[in-house]
Amino acid sequence: MSKGTGLGDNFYVAGVDVSGDVNSLSRIGGGLAPIDMTDITQSAYERQGGLRDGAIAWSSYFDPDVAHPLLSALPVTDVHVMYCRGTTLGNHGAALVAKQVGYDPARPGDGSLLFGVQALANRYGLEWGRQLTAGKRTDTGATAGTGVDLGTGSTTHGLQAYLQVFSMTGTDATVKIQESSDNGSGDAWADVTGGAFTELAAGPAVERIATATDLTVERYLRAVTTTSAGFTSLVFALLVVRNDTEVTF
Amino acid sequence: MSLNLGSILDVLSSHAAATGRFDQILTHEPDSSPQAGAALVTAIWVQRISPLPAMSGLAVTSVLVELVQRVYAPMTTRPADVIDIRVTEAIDDLLGRITADFQLGGTVNCVQLVGTPNLHAVAGYVRTDGAVQRVMDIAIPCVLADQWPQSA
Q1: Which of A12, A104, B18, B30 is deepest in the core (most CB within 10 A)?
Q2: Domain harbouring B65, CATH code
Q3: Rg (Cα) of chain A, in Å, rounded?
Q4: Tens digits of per-residue pLDDT, B72-95?
C-alpha cells in the first residue's frame, strides 16, 4: 500500500450510514490547543499543550430519507461520528463523540442544495484508529472476525474503541474485542479486559469504551460478536485506538 | 444501478412528438442527411457521460449524462427568412417542455437547468450528403445520483 486517495470512504453518524449523502468533508481536526508560554527572554514561541479538541465538518446533501431526518433533529445530546478511510479491514479511521452544531442549507443560484454540518468534540477530542470491521460488517449469528495487525509488539497504554450499530434483529448481541500476540496461531485469542461493549437489544446504537490506561494490548485485535438468546442480523462498525503512549482524558 | 438511457431517450422523444413540429424523431445521430420536407427533423443522442463531483457521495459516484437534441431544417426552405424562426420556435417549445418536466418523468434526478453545464441551445450548420441543414443543438445535462459505488 502506497499513497492513497479518499475514494470509497464511509461516514457514519449516530448509527446511520450517511456516506452517500456527504458531498465532502472539509475538516477532520483534532489535537491539543497550544497555550502560549513565551516569556520576554525568549526569541521564539514556547508553547505547551492545552485542551484536547476535535471536530469534523462536512457538507450534506438534502436526502429526506437518510440524512435529513437524522441531522435536522439537531440533538442537544452527544452524537457519535465515525470517518472510515476506505472500507478495508484494518484501514484507518477517525471517531468523535461530539455535539452537532448546525444543519444550515445553502441554495445558490445554480439550484444546488447543500447543508453545512459540524460535529464539535465533547470530552475526548478526535481519535484516529484502525477499523476492526471492513466498514460495516453484517453478522447473522455469533461471529469471530478476522484479526488486524496493529504493529510489532504489544503496547502498555490500553485502548479506546468506538462502536456504531446500524441495525439489529434478534434478542441480544454483544460486541467485544479480542487480542492475540500472533493472530491466534500459537497465542489463542482472548478477550481484552474492559474491551466489551454493552449488550445490545436493538439498533441504531453507539458506544465508546476505554480500557484501563495501563493495560497491555497485544499486537493483533479482532471484533467478535456473542449472544445468549440469539440474533439473526447485526450490522455494525468498530474502530479501535491502541495507545502508543499514555493518554489522559 | 443503471443509467437507463433508453428511458431517458423515450421521454425526450415523447416531448418532441408532443410539439407536433417534427416529421421525424430519431434517437441516434444520423450519418446521412435527414429527410426533412416542409417540417423539421430532430435527433437525440448521448454526447458525454462523466462523473459529477457536486452530487457524488463519499463512496458513490453520481453521473452527468449530457444529451444533445438537434433540430434540423433544410436550407432549401423558402422563404429563407422563416428557417430560423421555425427552428427557434421549436427549440423554445422543447426547452419549455424539458424545463416543465426537469426530472424527465422520473428517469433522472434532474436536468441541470441553471448550473454548469446548463440546459441551453446553440445554432449552426451541418453539411451531410452535400445538403446543408440549419441546425440548433440543445444540450441537456442530466444528473443521475448515486450510480457507481466505489470500492477498492
Answers
A1: A12
A2: 3.30.70.1700
A3: 20
A4: 998 888 888 899 999 999 999 999
